[in-house]
Write a structure and sequence with these properties.
The protein is mostly helical. The chain has two domains: about 1-290, no CATH class; about 305-525, Up-down Bundle (Methane Monooxygenase Hydroxylase, Chain G, domain 1), CATH 1.20.58. It contains 25 helices and no strands. The termini are far apart.
């Protein structure tokens, strides 16, 4: 459990520190080789090839990546996960005190959000190393018992059972990294032979491919194709290598029969061969999986769910149902505004009048939704409302007003700036472009967090959203300072784009502030907000000092 917790802790820290940049890393690749390298890197960062597969499935559903590129990313992620296991297999016990001291110091003491997440990551790595040492120590007395050798001998003689056990463990634990590290540890302490360990590892490869297939089962078929293709490729490859190792006697060529390194060699070799064989044929696999998982027949509800009000006048006499309808309508407004802000960076890079008109047209739906929410809130009978329910209605209405204001920023500030940039032929400096893209990615991540907060009313999520607001303000100040520094250095391209750059970062900050306002009522109810940011002093003392 400590190993599973530690792997999750590292992944959570990295997602919170860099999560908004993952989309760009995955979607900017257009050829299979660079896509595979991106997947390899992401798997090492996230410590999970299944997490990368889920990211790619989501991007595939949104048509942000093609089938061939997405499958290459997932196969690269599988190899990255294998390389990560090699790193953790080294004896790094001497690093544990250092990692605990540095990670704990950063996580507990640092006020900077990103440094705190770095502390979380470092602590997670320390916990992984500690858990592996615990596993080794736990197995020392067990390996001398009569029970474990009997199980080990059975797994050696029945490699199919070992393969299925490995697949089951990886699927149940939702982490092939944790399962394979456990198998490596068992072999290292002579608890099981390497032959059984290799079969377990190959099964874990199959189990890790099953995880994204299971988790995407409720998504559209376009999102399910890449995980299904990865399962088919890895499943066939794992079975073939299982037979080759156990029936053709290839194990001595992979490593020493009594060495834990043999498991890691087999794992890396399997994923490397799979990537090399499949890499340049990824796109050709799309046709059979498109037939297996055809496009879902679109219904009217699926085509335009965001453009229909969720408010139901028939439940106005039932306050709890009416408030639930209000919450759903506010969430719909958030989704509408999200679709408006999403193409803004594309418009900045290559202005498309048609896409701009579409975003502007969506603002009418946002305005209509706000009018309907105000009418609906006023129609709820006040005599049937508890004080807390009345307050909740007011909070939802106020947040709807904030969302409408955020939509106006897109329509009245960001899109006109994109149009002006296009008409005047203005270009951002590479650094300026990167800064604005980073802020836009952070805004999109915060919209998702605000949406979750509307559903859950979770206090910890509210704190995180408000921290993200502070992070956005910091990014805006940092971008402004860097821009002014470029101006002082005489960078001509920065002179030309100065007004648009500064107005853009200011608009993104303001947009984010409106979206983050969902956190304030929840934090106020939880007693997590200060009444004022001013330092309280005794005014009589101030007056005396002034005299």
């Amino acid at each position: 459990m400590l190993l599973l917790f530690a792997v999750r802790m590292v992944r959570t820290g990295i997602e919170r520190a860099f999560g908004s940049s993952f989309r760009r890393v995955v979607t900017q690749n257009r050829n299979p080789l660079s896509a595979a390298l991106a997947g390899l890197m992401l798997a090492i960062i996230l410590q999970s090839s299944a997490a990368v597969a889920l990211l790619v499935a989501g991007f595939s559903a949104a048509s942000a990546v093609t089938f061939g590129v997405g499958l290459a990313v997932v196969l690269g992620a599988d190899l990255g996960s294998a390389l990560l296991i090699q790193v953790f297999s080294f004896n790094l016990d001497w690093l544990v005190p250092v990692l605990l001291a540095i990670g704990g110091g950063l996580f507990v003491k640092s006020e900077n959000r990103r440094l705190r997440q770095f502390g979380r990551i470092i602590l997670g790595i320390a916990f992984i190393l500690i858990s592996l040492r615990f596993l080794r120590e736990t197995m020392d007395p067990i390996r001398d018992s009569s029970f474990l050798p009997a199980i080990a001998d059975y797994l050696v003689s029945d490699f199919v059972t070992a393969f299925l056990v490995g697949a089951f463990l990886a699927f149940i634990m939702h982490s092939s990294v944790a399962v394979i590290l456990m198998c490596v540890t068992l072999v290292a302490v002579d608890a099981i032979p390497a032959a059984a360990g290799v079969s377990l590892v190959l099964g874990a490869n199959l189990g890790s491919a099953l995880i994204p297939v299971w988790l995407t089962r409720g998504m559209a078929n376009t999102a399910r194709r890449i995980p299904a293709a990865n399962l088919a490729v890895r499943g066939v490859g794992a079975v073939l290598m299982l037979i080759a190792v156990n029936r053709l006697g290839l194990l001595p060529y992979i490593g020493a029969p009594d060495s834990a390194q043999t498991l890691i060699n087999a794992h890396i070799l399997f994923n490397s061969l799979l990537l090399l064989v499949t890499l340049f044929f990824c796109s050709r696999l799309e046709r059979p999986f498109a037939r297996l998982l055809p496009l879902n027949a679109p219904t009217f509800e699926e085509q335009s769910p965001m453009y229909r009000s969720t408010l139901d006048d028939s439940v106005l006499d039932k306050p709890h149902l009416a408030i639930a309808n209000l919450r759903r309508e506010v969430l719909r407004m958030v989704q509408l505004v999200e679709t408006m802000i999403h193409p803004v960076m594309d418009l900045y890079q290559a202005y498309d009048a048609g896409r701009a008109r579409t975003a502007i047209a969506q603002d009418n739906f946002v305005n209509t939704a706000l009018d309907d929410i105000r009418r609906y809130a006023a129609s709820i009978p006040s005599d049937g409302l508890a004080k807390s329910d009345s307050k909740r209605v007011r909070e939802l209405t106020e947040y709807a007003i904030a969302i409408e204001a955020a939509g106006d920023i897109v329509v009245k500030r960001l899109i006109p700036l994109a149009k002006e940039k296009h008409e005047k032929g203005i270009k951002f400096s590479p650094s300026g472009q990167s800064e604005i893209c980073r802020m836009h990615e952070q805004v999109e991540a915060n919209i998702e967090l605000a949406s979750n907060l509307l559903i859950s009313d979770d206090l910890e999520s509210a704190r995180l959203l408000l921290e993200e607001k502070g992070e956005m303000a910091r990014l805006e100040r940092k971008s402004r300072k860097r821009h002014l520094k470029r101006l002082s250095e005489g960078v001509q391209i920065s002179f030309d784009s100065s007004d648009i750059h500064l107005e853009t970062v200011s608009s993104l900050r303001d947009f984010n502030s409106y979206m983050a306002s969902a956190a304030y009522p929840i934090l106020h109810r939880g007693g997590q907000l200060l009444e004022t940011r001013l330092i309280e002093q005794d005014y009589d003392d101030i007056e005396i000092r002034q005299r």
